[in-house]
Amino acid sequence: MDKLVVEGGKRLAGNVTISGAKNSCLPILAATLLSEDRSVIRNCPDLRDISTMIKILKNLGVRVQQDGSTITVEPGNYKKYTASYELVSTMRASVCLLGPLLAKQRKAEVSFPGGCVIGPRPIDLHLKGMKALGADLKVERGYIIADAKNLKGGNVYLGGHFGSSVLATGNVMMAATLAKGTTVIENAACEPEVIDLACFLIKMGARISGHATHRIVVEGVKKLHGAEHSIIPDRIEAGTYIIAAAITKGDITLKNMELDHLVAVTDKLMESGLEIKKTISGVRARYVKKLKPLDIITLPYPGFPTDLQAQFMSLMTVTDGISVITEKIYPERFIHISELGRMGADIQLEGPNAIVKGMKSLSGAPVMASDLRASAALVLAGLVAKGRTDVHRIYHLDRGYENIEAKLTKLGAKVWREKEK
Ligand code: EPU
């Protein structure tokens, strides 16, 4: 197992290229299973979660080739329909195989994804959607077993306790492409990753409208064909580097980023005092004056993303004044608080609200990464802390940040990977 060591105190400056979005690439790779033809997916990030998805596709009997950031998938006449516990248990997002397998094979067995360190993550909306399309579902041996001889369009409302669901919307949309008749998804998620998936499905011959709104309509077709597609830039990776510019009082230009996908975040950071501008070479984030504390509430898109809550919290720990961070998507996604506390941060948790009192400085410490975004938050805190921070269990970070130490080093950070003793 590896750890990441960060020597704090360096100001980050220069250019960083943002990779393709993990959360777009995963369902799009799953969607290639809807056709027998070859699909070519470009701008794929080189991440552990993507390797897991490739393993799952190969296990299903599908040919997959990876050449740099291009992944070619040739499903052919694959016969299998099971995504096994061994692989699904390492990546919750594998649940997005349910829709394509059910639509193409009319049968699917996907290991029940189970618990998650960021709190309960139910899949009731996925199941509700599949049932609305006529699937028979049961849970046996830890697997969701779905059968649908006659998949047919239906109307489904996908609102959960905390709003819409990204992967449930994607799953139902994928299943509906090959169902007989029309499917209407109400309270659909409209995250950029859902739109990217819809665009790929349309290239495959699917008939979808209303993506980017909360009402998606899918007219089922008999067959889909292969397609070529380039994945959108990762808005969460981009947001993490913008926060890196803010926390180190730096000046970073982000290449290959879509500013429109991050408005809720850039708006807040500019309100705090960070300068963010579109230039000919990319998006420039520059520290120009002392930042002000801010309150944020995480919400479904276009609200402030939960996947940047932890990183934003790190910034607020060193921003003079009091800020309140309210988590509305995963009310238990706060494990990073105790680790930031080990670095001297002053954060009180009251229900879904974290009250952060900005300190003059943090002090480097050994800390434990608990999930992907919490890991990024600890690295950001390490960049500004006095002394050395050892972020243990860095495998979480490798699930979602391509070449993070190389990218940070190029920006001037002192950061390296070490084997755990
Ligand atoms: N929810 C339900 N029932 C369901 C599904 C979800 O109640 O059947 C609730 C969840 O409990 C949560 C909310 O809906 O409160 C949102 O969960 P969602 O289903 O949208 O999450 P997801 O689609 O499984 C994706 C991302 C997550 C990201 C969330 C929210 C992927 C692969 N994952 O998950 O990304 O946090 O949307 O934006 O797209 C990450 O990248 O670190 C990550 C966790």
Q: Return Rg in Å.
A: 21 Å
Poorly predicted regions:
none
Span between termini: 9 Å
Give the strand line-up of the largest sheet. 22-23-1-24
Mean pLDDT: 96
CATH homology superfamily name of the largest domain: Enolpyruvate transferase domain
What is the count of helical runs? Answer: 14
CATH-defined architecture of the largest domain: Alpha-beta prism
The overall strand count is 24
Sheet having the most strands: 4 strands, mixed
* CATH topology term of the largest domain: UDP-n-acetylglucosamine1-carboxyvinyl-transferase, Chain
Global morphology: globular
What CATH first level of the largest domain would be assigned? Alpha Beta
What hetero molecules are in the model?
uridine-diphosphate-2(N-acetylglucosaminyl) butyric acid
| Fraction of residues in H or I helices | 25-40%
Pairing-aware structural class of the strands and helices?
Answer: alpha/beta
Counted up, domains total 2
Strand content: 25-35%
Q: Which SSEs are present, and which pair or pack?
A:
Elements: E1 2-7, E2 13-17, H1 22-31, E3 39-42, H2 48-59, E4 63-67, E5 70-74, E6 82-83, H3 85-88, H4 98-105, E7 107-111, H5 124-132, E8 136-140, E9 143-147, E10 155-157, H6 166-177, E11 182-186, H7 192-203, E12 207-209, E13 215-219, E14 228-230, H8 235-247, E15 251-255, H9 263-272, E16 274-279, E17 282-287, E18 296-297, H10 309-317, E19 322-326, H11 336-342, E20 346-350, E21 353-357, E22 366-368, H12 372-384, E23 388-392, H13 395-398, H14 404-410, E24 414-419
Parallel strand pairs: 2-15, 3-14, 6-7, 10-11, 18-19, 22-23
Antiparallel strand pairs: 1-23, 1-24, 3-5, 4-5, 7-9, 8-9, 11-13, 12-13, 15-17, 16-17, 19-21, 20-21
The chain binds uridine-diphosphate-2(N-acetylglucosaminyl) butyric acid (EPU).
The site of uridine-diphosphate-2(N-acetylglucosaminyl) butyric acid has 24 residues, from helix 1, helix 5, helix 6 and helix 12.
